[in-house]
Amino acid sequence: METAILLIQCADQKGIVAKISDFAFRNDANIIASDQHSTDPSNGRFFMRLEFCFDPLSFAPQQLEAQFAILAHTLQDATWRIHYVSKLDKMGILVSKQDHCLCDILYRWKSGELRAEIPIVISNHENVAEETKRYGIPFIHLSLLNDNKTGQEKQILSAVKGKTDFLVLARYMQILSDAFVSAYSNDIINIHHSFLPSFKGANPYRQAFDRGVKIIGATAHYVTGDLDEGPIIEQAVDRVSHRDNIDTLKRKGRNLETIALANAIRAQLEHRIIRYENKTIVFE
Amino acid sequence: METAILLIQCADQKGIVAKISDFAFRNDANIIASDQHSTDPSNGRFFMRLEFCFDPLSFAPQQLEAQFAILAHTLQDATWRIHYVSKLDKMGILVSKQDHCLCDILYRWKSGELRAEIPIVISNHENVAEETKRYGIPFIHLSLLNDNKTGQEKQILSAVKGKTDFLVLARYMQILSDAFVSAYSNDIINIHHSFLPSFKGANPYRQAFDRGVKIIGATAHYVTGDLDEGPIIEQAVDRVSHRDNIDTLKRKGRNLETIALANAIRAQLEHRIIRYENKTIVFE
Amino acid sequence: METAILLIQCADQKGIVAKISDFAFRNDANIIASDQHSTDPSNGRFFMRLEFCFDPLSFAPQQLEAQFAILAHTLQDATWRIHYVSKLDKMGILVSKQDHCLCDILYRWKSGELRAEIPIVISNHENVAEETKRYGIPFIHLSLLNDNKTGQEKQILSAVKGKTDFLVLARYMQILSDAFVSAYSNDIINIHHSFLPSFKGANPYRQAFDRGVKIIGATAHYVTGDLDEGPIIEQAVDRVSHRDNIDTLKRKGRNLETIALANAIRAQLEHRIIRYENKTIVFE
Amino acid sequence: METAILLIQCADQKGIVAKISDFAFRNDANIIASDQHSTDPSNGRFFMRLEFCFDPLSFAPQQLEAQFAILAHTLQDATWRIHYVSKLDKMGILVSKQDHCLCDILYRWKSGELRAEIPIVISNHENVAEETKRYGIPFIHLSLLNDNKTGQEKQILSAVKGKTDFLVLARYMQILSDAFVSAYSNDIINIHHSFLPSFKGANPYRQAFDRGVKIIGATAHYVTGDLDEGPIIEQAVDRVSHRDNIDTLKRKGRNLETIALANAIRAQLEHRIIRYENKTIVFE
Predict the structure, then answer these.
(1) C-alpha torsion sign, points A183, A189, A195, A196
(2) What residues of A are in contact with residue D107 (Cβ under 8 Å)?
(3) Domain boundaries D91-282, CATH class
(4) D neighbours by CB contacts (3+ pairs under 8 Å)
């Protein structure tokens, strides 16, 4: 038996769930989980995640998708995709000097908590090379030479384009250009070390300290052309007080960053996220 | 247009969602929200909440229910009920001397946050009479005389049986007998001032203080014959420290109690809860 | 016995605690609680809250303060104040149409959780008049006439200046002018319905919805000339999801607003807050 | 300059802080942080943590302690200890098959977040050997043979007694005997994978699932003769729902366990904890 996950969005209209669940029923699929959301039942947009298992011998994936395409044509303004659990997503990782998110991801990956292939880890620092290689993952070190950002991004692109399903910026401290984001075209998940939209840009813990906030946060979001403005996937927070200095804010923040990013990656790998306008639907 | 909410549970099997959503589609219902859960797609139990609107002129509620009953007969071991949003639930409230939950409920009710009728407030203390009457709600004071618990429960039962859809124990410090719970037969929601199953029984804040916990909680649950053992609906927690004494634990706890109970009541009134074994499914 | 609370800040230097605790000891005071904080032991600023009880018959408050003034003269750049628990602070409240914070404050006040006098409630709406009067608190209704903001603020000032120790803006939707804030000169606590510094200004829940955040918040802060930029006293947060619309954000937000504001008021009344630069020290 | 931390508890009485801060002042110590707590100023018990730096050339540690002992003799029922930041504590670790806490501790230790020596890691499983040795830490594998618990504990004791300042049970699934706890005599910190006192004993996530709680937790506590009854140091919680099965409870729980245990270890290493009756004072 194969397990598949359908993610679909379309204009909301009567009968969508009936059509899709009937499709599953007629094809002898066993529904494991089904979640839907509508921004407005009368005029809004409809989102659905359907996790089901089926017999790939009696019903090949290509056949399944061809038949579903016919159904989807009857839905207004629909975009959809079917993912197969047997086919692991390829996750590329970019990281700079701070390695707490990287090490956390690799540990969870090794222990089976994150089901993915990791074909590549890329860094502009060498300190993470050993940790990466220990797990048997290819590592590329790309030092950032003067005025050579374009060249560096070309190297990254050639290493990940077509070879990864999405990228994770696990505390990657370079800003990827619009050109890179467009050229890569797949999802890129970033962890920003603040409770966005507070404290965008550089040194968010310094900004939080100066503002005297009583709660700090971390935000996992998709990267878009606008820095720190992409769709938010997950946020985590912790209390702080006048006793905290920038060092203890950073320490508490590392816990938030690793957990928010791990949760976002898990949602991505389990195909629980649908992007919509500048937001996300994250089915639990 | 009328809005209705179907709550159903049955043995999980293929085609349930297809049948139910097809039923809604054929009857021209507009699905507003749909949530489902299965404990196990192969052998488990299936739960669904379907919120939809329909035209009661072309399709009367009795007709709707009669037709749905035919469908439900085809599902194994099904129990279901359809609630109509236009028909407010009748919520009876029992309370003792501490009135923070009562006052919070009445404020939320008055401001429209909790959609219900409140036909009666009953207390074994008189201090809450004025507050209750101010809202125009009938109030009954039942003092607990010696050896007269049975008599008191009879009075309560005659005031609520058939006149309320469910009861809320808003810090009611008497233990209702099994006989009462059976005789009333509808849902009874209690707020216990601890993080169950920790600190059952009397004086939970004293117990928490003595144990030296670093987090306290409150638990809203359905009342069953076993004291503090009924299905949990909602829990809330807050951090405490060595600085807290029993008085500050109680103060922090009051916030938790009011919020956990208000959330549980809202879920009850919006028909988001399905009871199952000794647990609850609470659709968000 | 009288209980007093000393709040002091000065340049950090060796021997401060020794001097102050020796002062308490020599005067036969019993220290109930003592908290201190230093931004930096070598060059920083020192803050202290000392709660103690003493016999006012053998040692009058004026005498106590006169003697402490001599000690404080030996500390560099010191500002201090002694509050007496027997003398309740006078708290004025300004509120607009939404009354959830007001009702919460009045309930906590009545039940003894907030120890204060409330000499006046002022609103630009009449709907809160009844609730206020029920508690026996004088109420002033000030409608905002065209181009008459200056006149309205004059009326407020004459009602509170010299008659209140601090003001609470319990969802008061008018922006107080710099002139008013200067003229009043005492503390003004505001509750902003967002997690500052995110979503300053109008309609923060709309802003939060549009940004697609996964956590919302509320912020209690002191009012300064810069709108929503004053020192933060307390923040509270709650998780939200794609299921939340603006109405449910507002509902969840009301819980956060009432709790953050109540905590801030309690800290103010218990003299736990020291303002410093644009921040607060809040001793627990 | 040397930094030292004094932890002291005694019967509360007037003048304690004056004496101790005067002691620091006279000896030219610079107070970095000072925290105190009293269970009751009239009849209670007093606790203090004083972090200060001094010149060990002009004032040797032995001299400091000898002089402080004289002061402490004037305090009723006092116990105290001075720790020196330059002298790292020796932390021994016991672990079974599940290595998430161990790996987290070692990562934090390597990155400088936990300042300690780790002279030994002991396990009844071999799978953690490689990870431990990679950090250059001696590893002992002790398989549990039939009826040989006493023998195993003797081996452990000989490996840690006199060679470690405290032990961490980082998901060590053997129950240490009373005899071992007595013989070791130093602190032993355990992480229990539930929100104690809920779900003591075996399989707490199974117990939590069966009870249908809406929040799960983890508890770091000192080990005493009574299983899962020792003084609680730190607790962490997370929300769960009907969607969670035992596997996802365990996954969420691992995050809680690592964070609660890391926070407890940091508090231990920074000498922020004072044990008292069956509780802890944890200065922040």
Answers:
(1) positive
(2) 100, 103
(3) alpha beta
(4) A, B, C
Q: Which whole-number Å values give the CA distances from A221 to A115, A167, A216, A229, C122, in the listed order?
A: 20, 12, 17, 8, 44
Q: Do C241 and B100 touch (CB under 8 A)?
A: no
Q: What is the pLDDT along chain D (284 residues), one digit of tens a residue?
A: 899 999 999 999 999 999 999 999 999 998 999 999 999 988 899 999 999 999 998 889 999 999 999 999 999 999 999 999 999 999 999 999 999 999 999 999 999 999 999 999 999 999 999 999 999 999 999 876 666 888 899 999 999 999 999 999 999 999 999 999 999 999 999 999 999 999 999 999 999 999 999 999 999 999 998 889 999 999 999 999 999 999 999 999 999 999 999 999 999 999 999 999 999 999 99
Q: How many cross-chain Cβ pairs, B to C, lie less than 8 Å apart?
A: 15
Distances (CA, A) of D186 to D142, D161, D189, D224, D260: 21, 9, 10, 11, 21
Q: CB neighbours of A120 closer than 8 A, spacing ≥ 6?
A: A92, A93, A137, A138, A139, A140, A159, A160, A163, A164
Burial class (CB in 10 A: 0-12, 13-18, 19+), C241: middle
CA A224 → CA A184, A190, A228, C10, distances in Å? Answer: 11, 10, 8, 48
Buried/exposed C166-186: b ≥16 CB within 10 Å, e otherwise? bbbbbbbebebeeebbeebee
What phi, psi does A154 have (nearest 5°)?
-65, -40
A window 208-247, beta carbon within 8 A of B: 239
Q: Where are the domains of chain D?
A: 2-84, 91-282
Calculate the alpha carbon distances from C58 to B176, C29, C61, C63, C72 in Å.
Answer: 56, 11, 10, 10, 22
**Structure-block tokens of residue C99:** 């009354």
Residue of D nearest to A99 (CA): D111
**What does the CA dihedral D227, D233, D238, D240 come to, rounded to 10 degrees?**
20
Which amino acid is it at B165? D
To the nearest 10 degrees (0 to 180), the angle between helices A16-26 and A61-73 is: 150
Length of chain C: 284
* Class level of CATH domain C2-84: alpha beta
Average pLDDT, chain B: 95
Beta strand extents in A23-156 (DSSP E only): 30-38, 45-54, 79-84, 90-95, 117-123, 139-141
Say if the Cβ atoms of B103 and C107 lie within 8 Å.
yes
Q: Distance from A78 to chain B by nearest Cα, in Å? A: 18
Exposed / middle / buried, residue B182 (Cβ in 10 Å: 0-12, 13-18, 19+): exposed
Per-residue pLDDT reduced to its tens digit, A105-138: 999 999 999 999 999 999 999 999 999 999 999 9
User: Taking a C-beta distance cutoff of 8 angstroms, is the pair C170, C120 a contact?
Assistant: no
For residue B184, the surrounding DSSP H or E stretch is helix B178-184
Strand pairing class (B90-95; B117-123)? parallel
The residue in chain C having the minimum alpha-carbon distance to the alpha carbon of residue A212 is C279
Same fold, D2-84 and D91-282: no
Neighbours of B130 (CB within 10 A): 10
Q: What is the pLDDT of residues D37-64, one digit of tens each?
A: 999 988 899 999 999 999 998 889 999 9
Question: Using the beta-carbon criterion (under 8 Å), do A284 and D241 form an inter-chain contact?
Answer: yes
CB atoms closer than 10 angstroms to residue C73? 9
> For the whole model, what pTM was predicted?
0.97
The interface predicted TM-score (ipTM) is 0.95
**In this structure, what token pair is assigned to residue B195?**
């993080």
Interface of D with A in 17-56 (CB under 8 A): none
Catalytic site residue A244?
A: no
